[in-house]
Structure prediction request, 554 residues.
Amino acid sequence: MTGLTPTGGTRPRIAVFAGPTATILNTPDLVTSNKARTRHGLAPRPGRFDALRPQRLAAPVTAYVEAYSAHPLERDAAHLYAPPDGWLDTDGAFHTTQPTGDATPVFVVELHPDDGLYPLPYMGRQRDGSAWEEAATAPYAPSEAARQTFYPDARRLYEEIERFGLGDHGTPVEFGSIADFDFFRAAPSGGYTAGPDGERPGRDFFVYYPYHLQSEPHLGDLAGATNQVQAILAAGEHDGVQWLEGSPTVDETLYWLGLLIDTTVPLVGHAAQRRHHSLSADGDRNVVDGVKYIASGVALDAQGVDRVGACVIVDELVYTARDVTKVDARPGGYEVTGGHGGIVADLGGYGPPQLTYLPTRRHTARSQLRLTVLPKEVTGVAGSLESGVTLLGVATRDGDGLIPEAMPRVTITKYSRYAVEPGGDPQVGDEVEILARIRANLAAAPLAGFVCEGMSPFGMADPAKNLALGVAIFAGMPVVRTGRGNTGGMAYRTDPTFIVGNNLTATKARLLLMAALLKYGALPPATDPFRPTHAERAVTEQAVARYQALFDTH
Prediction:
């Protein structure tokens, strides 16, 4: 640790993780400029101006910048300025003294490669000499014929923010004077594919653009990312984490990390609704606000321990990861879920961030689900509904952390009215999807469970679905009931064999149940999951109570 205090007296070191399908790390397609098209005899694109893209100079350049051209009213205040560096006459010749006749006052600028990136026209063309019109060589081209638009990690993003970002008073965004950064790739959005050992999309990195090449991380990738974050923070060299991910899911990953990561430093997630470089891109400001939040020390108590837990910082607001979700695909599209707080700090304006309330739920170093205290083995279930369910040991953690193959499989099922089969009494066999998933879990997923997004806020479903989920419970798979949508009330406990999800959304309840399975393992199965005895029900209720305690406090 660098010794950051609540007053922000020491510059912190921040670990920045690039996560999957992250718009905040995505850039618009590199399209060949009209400068290049004209140079090579290609048809120009419509429009007055080329899009300028950050690029590096290969050699020094002397540029003559027209004086008073940075603002429409700059010339109006010319009397406040020192004389220009010189003048260009109508033939383009440079003079150190003002010549007679028309001449343009200029500033002389020496541009050097080591200055950093400059916005310049994009001159690249395809191998056959044609212009680039999109990321791929042609619409719907395979991945080997497509360029990537996502950055492989956040290093270039932070460089560009610092190089081109402006503070509110015209000064640069000087990350280097605020914090030190280390950049890591955890299920990243971009990958290095060249060469025989190149990374592969869908295995080593996960994109959503071009859209036909979309890939998604799996449970093993979540385990690997969790292990990586824990290992890096365990070294004690970082004062905070910034996690960058796609806007629809960043809150889920941050909630998971807040449950599993044993740390006393802030865990901050960021996303963007618009690509980096695009008009009104929102991601850059979110990153700056995250650095500001961590460096301020506002999240720390008097002993330097984080007291907020995992949070998502977007749109100048700090949300607890447990209590936020994306509801609309535009900046400002996040809302507090659960009806009880959620926004813990405001980052708007010129002043330092201030906390508005402190979450009461357990998190990070206070979590009962943190990685360092989880057992190395729990009990799982296997078998079939027809021949019987048996218990088996499942190794879940080793010296490297979570074992990817042991990650619990939790399925969300959603209640909707008018879905019951007409006539007669409700039959468990009507729920073919749930029964099929139970059988698949018994065959291949010894740690498994269900979340039922039921009536709001009760969490109950129709009788047939309730019966089928009861079979899951007595086959060893815990079931959580949550309200449908953004429920402000708490789910009610009408049956003690079911876990109630408090005021969690179904997606957050899924993550908490996954973590709970890693702690407590499967429920004790009944001899016949369709017809449990009174004694078997009592044993199940006792086991479920342990799960319920976690849902009441995390």
Summary: Residues 534-553 form the longest helix (20 residues). Confidence is low (pLDDT under 50) at residues 1-8. The two ends are 27 Å apart (CA to CA). DSSP finds ten helices and 24 strands in the chain.
